[in-house]
């Protein structure tokens, strides 16, 4: 048995440490990174602990894994692209080891991943921002001549029927496939 050395009645339980932070832009830094084997033993991932570097949530932690070796080429490519994004955002685009990225602040967009299997929702890094990149602001709604006037409707251009002497042109098909079509 271990004696705490303090009375638990003197302290309030904190429940806000593990609540999710709102979606948005944050400045983070990695504090720990470790390569680990997957449960099946057929790949490796990088387990990283990030900490909010500044602002209202300074000191809060985010845990995120990146596939670095995986039997699924798609999963491996996604994980490696994420690590490359982290390296660029941290100002070390040629990083060869996670140690090159520890304690290097960077900006990112955090999102909230829905919990499953009895786990709560959690924050995840949605994208890494490089340099002075900022997320694009949402476009302002179109206004009429006066703010209280409804937005004028644009007339739709009418599609002309092809002339009998000219065959209708087909839209060109792209030879390049999307990565998710595989």
Percent strand = 25-35%
User: Overall pLDDT, averaged?
Assistant: 79
SSE order in H/E notation? EEEHEE
Query: Could you say which structural class the secondary elements and strand pairing correspond to?
Result: mainly beta
Largest sheet: 5 strands, antiparallel
Characterize the overall form: globular
What is the distance, rounded to the nearest whole angstrom, between the alpha carbons of the first and last residues?
A: 57 Å
Count the helices. How many? 1
Explain what the structure shows.
The structure is a single chain. The chain is mainly β and 182 residues long. It has a domain at 25-129. It contains one helix and five strands; from the N terminus they run E-E-E-H-E-E. A hairpin with a 6-residue loop joins strand 1 and strand 2 (44-52).
List the helices and strands and how they pair.
Blueprint: E1 24-37, E2 44-52, E3 61-69, H1 73-89, E4 106-113, E5 122-129
Antiparallel strand pairs: 1-2, 1-4, 2-3, 4-5
Keywords:
182 residues, 5-stranded antiparallel β-sheet, mainly beta, 9% helix
Entry summary:
The protein has 182 residues and is mainly β. Helices cover 9% and strands 26% of the residues. Strands 3-2-1-4-5 form a 5-stranded antiparallel beta sheet, covered by helices on one side.
């Amino acid at each position: 048995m271990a004696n705490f050395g303090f009375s638990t009645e003197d302290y309030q339980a904190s429940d806000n440490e593990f609540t999710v932070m709102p979606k948005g832009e944050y400045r983070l830094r990695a504090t720990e990174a470790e390569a680990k084997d997957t449960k099946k033993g057929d790949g490796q991932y990088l387990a990283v602990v990030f900490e909010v570097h500044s602002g209202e949530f300074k000191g809060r932690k985010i845990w995120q894994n990146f596939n670095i070796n995986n039997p699924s080429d798609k999963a491996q490519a996604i994980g490696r692209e994420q690590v490359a994004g982290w390296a660029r955002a941290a100002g070390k685009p040629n990083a060869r080891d996670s140690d090159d990225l520890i304690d290097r602040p960077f900006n990112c967009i955090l999102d909230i991943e829905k919990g499953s299997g009895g786990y709560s929702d959690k924050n995840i890094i949605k994208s890494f921002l490089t340099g002075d990149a900022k997320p694009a602001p949402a476009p302002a709604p179109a206004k009429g001549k006066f703010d209280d006037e409804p937005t004028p409707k644009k007339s739709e251009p009418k599609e002309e029927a092809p002339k009998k002497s000219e065959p209708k042109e087909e839209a060109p098909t792209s030879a390049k496939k999307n990565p998710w079509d595989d």
